[in-house]
């Protein structure tokens, strides 16, 4: 009986094993075919990819262009595509080689080395494309290809895309369930790619497909299939406000200067739009969040130092009668003790030009005595405690923000006691004061145009593929922003004095071809006194302002800061580009 019992046990074990195997096969082939394992792998898609050779012509995701329609993230080219099975056929290789400007040997050599579809890196004309396709050679096509430029241009503003299942489900769960989107669909993760993802999300790739067996041999004859029906409306184009030439120039200047942390933002004053924006450090593609390079520092508030004196000056001009005729003891610091730099007795105008801390510490206490919230009120009027970026209703999206990663600045924390010393420190842009480079650029734009404050746009419109407008972003006033025209004009005079005066902190810029008005700032970082945030914020040309520009070098030793050199070079380059544009 014992052998019989052993046989029963063995049979039972085998039966259990078979049931487990059948269950596993059912899981793979019937139950979880589209979401297998914790990685949610679509087995059907993977199976098709395994036996398919393909050439993606267009990934189907929307594209970004600059204010003149120039591509920012991609380029389109007419190119020759060859499939590997072509090497087994007889075809007029000499004629095709002549069209693409290559020797017949070089063309066939590329094909013979290929195990997947190969693109010949020679752009051809439309006439050549038609001539090649008229030959009707199986496995050989001349097609318009959309190629990704690698994502480095204006990378912080435009942002990153990638495969992220959690984001995909969060944003498009219904479309996934209905099969409209693949689990492999890329989504926008940061920047404009994320903000405009609902408009940019790929509908369907356009590609050439060819099915092969395990050895790469044809499965269904020599026909190559085109997928992705032509659509005159999609994918869309997002027309940014960037100027490609100016963006390139600012990137080059910032990088050649050696500025490691910080950047620059250039705003068009008439339209209140971003023409160039550069943040450093660059994004690490392998670990974008690892060193913090993924964060756009132009949208993050930092201690502004003396640039904030512009806010105190605005409040003093409107709230303190006869302030322009007062004099101040600039031999002392904000605490009434002997100053490290004895500046003597200065007028209100000269105090601003020479950035006297004692003057603005006193003025801060004077305006706060009238109203304890006066500093916050004027910081808001000049846009330093309200997000500067455009927001509003876009179709069904009630609170759409072009720059959702933007953080707003602040004057006080909730638990700060407004003691006389705290007020003085705040009035010179220290203590708890924070403002982003974009907010400060918007402040300078507001002053430069005469006091009206607007939201900053980074995108002008969303366009259908055929060029028609899907949505246009209107110019919008900044809520709670703006100052009197008379005040703006007096601030313009003060900002001009910073550059024109012999002892002005921005006198280096007096030699520029565009006359500059602006304010410098050096902010000590409280926990690391040896390090500072070094700023220059201004606008130009002085008489008919066209641009506001802010440059900041973060967490550096004062003497090592690159701010002034970068500001100087950007203004010079913008002038040259404007001259070239006028000559065209």
Largest β sheet strand count, sense and barrel closure: 5 strands, antiparallel
- Give the helix/strand class: alpha+beta
How large is the share of residues in beta strands? 15-25%
Report the C-alpha radius of gyration, rounded.
Answer: 31 Å
The oligomerization state is single chain
Overall shape: it is elongated
The number of distinct helices, counting runs of at least 4 residues, comes to 18
Low-confidence stretches: 43-50
What is the count of β-strands? 21
- Helix content bin: 25-40%
Determine the mean pLDDT.
88
Distance between the termini: 103 Å
Can you list the strand order of the major beta sheet?
Answer: 12-11-21-20-19
What does this structure look like?
The protein has 584 residues and is of the alpha+beta class. The chain has 18 helices and 21 strands. The chain has helices spanning 2-31, 43-50, 93-100, 104-112, 126-134, 155-158, 165-177, 191-195, 197-200, 244-257, 309-319, 348-354, 357-370, 374-381, 420-427, 437-448, 485-500, 563-583, and strands spanning 52-58, 63-65, 74-82, 118-120, 140-148, 161-162, 187-188, 206-211, 225-227, 237-240, 262-268, 273-280, 327-329, 345-347, 391-394, 397-401, 459-463, 469-472, 517-525, 528-540, 547-556. The strands form seven sheets. The chain has a five-stranded antiparallel beta sheet with strand order 12-11-21-20-19, sandwiched between helices. A four-stranded mixed beta sheet has the order 2-10-17-18, with no helix packed on it. A three-stranded antiparallel beta sheet has the order 1-8-9. Strand 17 and strand 18 (469-472) form a beta hairpin. The termini are far apart. The model is unreliable at 43-50 (pLDDT under 50).
């Amino acid at each position: 009986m014992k052998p019989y019992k052993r046989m029963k046990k063995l049979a039972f074990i085998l039966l259990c094993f078979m049931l487990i195997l059948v269950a596993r096969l059912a899981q793979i082939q019937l139950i979880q075919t589209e979401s297998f394992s914790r990685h949610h792998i679509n087995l059907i898609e993977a199976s098709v990819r395994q036996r398919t050779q393909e050439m993606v012509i267009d990934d189907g995701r929307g594209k970004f262009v600059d204010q003149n329609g120039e591509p920012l993230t991609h380029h389109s080219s007419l190119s020759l595509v060859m499939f590997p099975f072509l090497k087994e056929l007889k075809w007029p290789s000499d004629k095709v080689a002549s069209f693409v400007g290559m020797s017949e040997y070089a063309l066939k050599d590329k094909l013979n080395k290929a195990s997947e579809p190969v693109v010949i890196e020679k752009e051809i004309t439309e006439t050549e494309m038609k001539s090649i396709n008229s030959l009707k050679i199986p496995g050989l096509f001349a097609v318009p290809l959309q190629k990704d430029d690698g994502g480095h241009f204006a990378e912080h503003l435009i942002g990153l895309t990638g495969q992220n299942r959690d984001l995909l489900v969060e944003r498009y769960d219904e479309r996934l369930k209905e099969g409209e989107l693949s689990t492999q669909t890329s989504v926008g993760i940061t920047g404009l790619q994320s903000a405009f993802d609902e408009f940019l999300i790929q509908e369907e790739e356009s590609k050439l497909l060819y099915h092969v067996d395990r050895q790469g041999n044809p499965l269904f004859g020599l026909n190559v299939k085109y997928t992705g029906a032509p659509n005159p409306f999609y994918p869309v184009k997002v027309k940014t406000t960037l100027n490609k030439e100016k963006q390139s120039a600012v990137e080059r200047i910032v990088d050649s200067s050696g500025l490691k942390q910080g950047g620059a933002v250039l705003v068009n004053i008439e339209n209140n739009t971003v023409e160039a924006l550069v943040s450093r450090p660059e994004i690490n593609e392998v670990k974008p969040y690892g060193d913090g390079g993924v964060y756009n520092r132009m949208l993050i508030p930092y201690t502004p130092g003396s640039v904030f004196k512009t806010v105190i000056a605005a409040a003093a001009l409107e709230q303190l009668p006869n302030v322009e005729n007062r004099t101040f003891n600039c031999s002392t610091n904000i605490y009434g003790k002997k100053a490290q730099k004895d500046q003597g007795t200065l007028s209100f105008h000269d105090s601003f030009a020479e950035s006297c801390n004692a003057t603005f510490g006193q003025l801060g206490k004077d305006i706060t005595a009238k109203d304890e919230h006066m500093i916050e009120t004027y910081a808001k009027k000049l846009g330093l405690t309200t997000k500067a970026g455009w927001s509003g209703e876009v179709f069904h999206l009630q609170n759409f923000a072009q720059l959702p990663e933007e953080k707003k600045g602040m004057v006080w924390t909730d638990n700060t006691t407004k003691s006389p010393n705290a007020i003085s420190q705040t009035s010179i842009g220290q203590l708890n004061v924070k403002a982003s480079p974009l907010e400060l650029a918007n402040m300078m734009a507001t002053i430069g145009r005469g006091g009206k404050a607007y939201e900053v746009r980074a995108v002008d419109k969303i366009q259908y593929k055929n060029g028609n407008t899907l949505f246009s972003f209107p110019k919008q006033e900044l809520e709670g922003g703006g100052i009197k025209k008379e005040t703006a004009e007096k601030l313009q005079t003060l900002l001009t004095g910073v550059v024109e005066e012999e002892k002005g902190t921005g006198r280096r810029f007096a030699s520029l071809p565009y006359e500059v008005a602006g304010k410098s700032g050096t902010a000590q970082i409280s926990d690391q006194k040896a390090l500072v945030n070094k700023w220059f914020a201004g606008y130009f040309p002085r008489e008919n302002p066209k641009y506001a520009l802010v440059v900041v070098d973060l967490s550096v030793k004062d003497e090592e800061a690159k701010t002034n050199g970068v500001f100087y070079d950007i203004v010079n380059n913008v002038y040259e580009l404007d001259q070239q544009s006028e000559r065209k």
